[in-house]
Amino acid sequence: MPGNPQLNANGELQHLLSIEGLPREILTQILDTAEPFADVTEREVKKVPLMRGKSVFNLFFEASTRTRTTFEIAAKRLSADVINLNVPVSSQTKGESLLDTVANLSAMQADVFVVRHGSSGAPYLIARHVKPHEHVINAGDGRHAHPTQGLLDLYTIRHYKKDFARLTVAIVGDVLHSRVARSLIHGLTTLGVPEVRVIGPQTLLPAGVESLGVRVFHDMRAGLRDCDVVVMLRLQNERMNGALLPSAQEFFKHYGLTADKLALAKPDAIVMHPGPMNRGVEIDSPVADGPHSVILPQVTFGIAIRMAVMSIVVGN
Amino acid sequence: MKLLIKGGRVVDPASGRDEVGDVFISEGRISGKREKADQTIEAKGLVVAPGLIDLAARLREPGYEYKATLESEMDAAVAGGVTSLACPPDTDPPLDEPGLVDMLRRRAKVLSRARVYPVGALTVKLAGERLTEMAELAEAGCVAFSQANAPLADTQVLWRAMQYAGTFGFPVWLRAEDRWLSQGGVAHDGEVATRLGLAGIPSFAETIALGTVLQLVRATGARLHFCRLSTAAGVEMIRAAKKEALPVTCDVGIHHVHLSEMDLGYYDSHCRLEPPLRSQRDREALAAGLADGTIDCAVSDHTPVDEDQKQMPFAEAEPGATGLELLLPLLLKWGAERKLPLAKTLARVTSDAARVLGVASGRIEAGAPADLVVFDPEQSFRVTPEALKSQGKNTPFLGYELAGRVRATIVAGSVVYDASGGD
Prior knowledge:
The complex is a heterodimer of chains A (316) and B (423).
Chain A: H1 24-40, E1 55-60, H2 66-77, E2 81-86, H3 98-106, E3 112-117, H4 122-129, E4 135-141, H5 147-161, E5 168-172, H6 179-190, E6 195-199, E7 215-217, H7 220-224, E8 229-232, H8 248-255, H9 259-262, E9 270-272, H10 285-288, H11 295-315
Parallel strand pairs in A: 1-2, 1-3, 3-4, 5-6, 5-8, 6-7, 8-9
Chain B: E1 2-12, E2 17-26, E3 29-31, E4 39-42, E5 47-50, E6 52-54, H1 70-79, E7 82-87, H2 98-111, E8 115-121, H3 134-140, E9 144-146, H4 155-168, E10 172-175, H5 179-182, E11 187-188, H6 191-196, E12 200-201, H7 204-220, E13 224-227, H8 232-243, E14 248-253, H9 254-258, H10 280-292, E15 297-299, H11 307-310, H12 327-337, H13 342-347, H14 351-357, E16 372-382, E17 401-411, E18 414-418
Parallel strand pairs in B: 1-4, 1-5, 6-7, 7-8, 8-9, 9-10, 10-13, 11-12, 13-14, 14-15
Antiparallel strand pairs in B: 1-2, 2-3, 5-16, 16-17, 17-18
Helix pairs in contact in B: 2-3, 4-7, 7-8
């Protein structure tokens, strides 16, 4: 297998493609770097000049508002120039290949490509073809990875729980199609979380998921017992009725997070969700808005994490 | 025209012969007599063996000439020591009409390199709904009938197709894959696909289809050749079927003998193959099954794909690998790893393949067609795009050092490839 395509010759972060394969030191460096940026977002003047004169291309082959916006805000707070490209509505429909699109943008002097693509592994392909000074940040590829989401989840957990070494974390719902779950699982195991659980029906868990280092639960009540952190995953509309699940109602009954089920977790458990939420499908409104929920702080931390990642890769 | 191949190590898997000697060729056939030759090939230190018979090589004509042409792929065949090849019907249009088959055979004949045996479509347009005119197609030169990589979903049609083919004694070649279970999948449904976030094709997509087809073999008596086995459980089922004396044979793609899901690495689209590369355990079972004869043949499953179609995210990349020129070196590598005698190694692409195809070549004996390959089993070469004559440069083995270089290829007594002749 070739060397880790995310790291440069000095073992530093060149691209952020996946949390898998990143050493603990780099994960910690990103989380530490994000701390002061979280303060920047609280300040009156929310800008630092770390990326002045640099160009960030938001290259979204799949629709997204939230992730794209947070990357845009993060880049602007670092004083970079941001160009947003929604590719499905431009060149891809004209038959231009992915690599041609990237080559054209590269000719416009990009420093950072933030890429979202519907196909797992697409950012790897792009990273193999960009120039040495250009950096690729994966903003979600297929079912594979969403590393900045995983990092902001880690940041959130560290913020509220301080020490990873004693935690029990449960990830609930559609793990099969979830890039968020994969990224978070790799991050948690790398940072030494002793127990990571996944909870869902067999139809929504990928083959051999145990090989990622998780414990599988089909019974949500058993899986939530004594958890410190509960991460709910979004259930896509198109998966709600069909061969994977009979209905959103039945899913909610068995795998939706309610106050009653949450009571099985530790009293100080936090509830997370990568958004956008389906209230009444994977999470009940009183829980989403309740005292255990840290869903909105996650969004705020997301900006700091994306600032940290961009400033680190550009600095390397 | 009389030809002498002098002083080579003559390896004939059919008879088990393996000794230094001369091979005389006269009128396109192996001659039993020592005759004065018009041309002599010096083969000292080289192996002289029957030319390879590849049961699956896509020539991309008609329809996909931008990926490869008959000419480029026939060059690749003879450069790889392949003297006969069967081509699957998944051309565009598919080989479902006698006219197309006839044209392909004529075009191949004009090029006078390897022998081409078209495999006809089992159903019209490979759509799995209507039977093709198999008798007509057979008359035009089809040696068997197949669905290529378009598995038949409708078991009623499958049953009828096997009955109909069985009526005439036509062999049916099928890749066992349940279409519903493989739908959307691009990789083996296991650890690697889970990690990479790729949609999986479970092993039972193969074994369920295999079970169905085996049941239909029992019911219809059709002769069945299973193409591209990919799972350990599948090998086991074939082993049992053969023990039961069902009229079945099978092959494996040479890539699957050497590679597994682990080789996908970071989304290497050259490892996007049909069927998918499976687990190490499956790979081991395939390599062992090929050695003990459960699997009759190894094939290149040659599929030239142009680079643009491979420079894509894994799931979107076109499946397949180029293979005609790598079949021999990869087979030798397998034989060496399992410590098999050379004759036994070569049998899987010569005498055994001839048996499946029902042809007289694939052996070195008086009167047999003079289809031969002369190669240096020790000489190694680096697999680079430049080293391949095929228009397809798509192989997971790019950059590898492989041993086994063809020096000369002879079809029907004519030298169609000569590495020393400034070719």
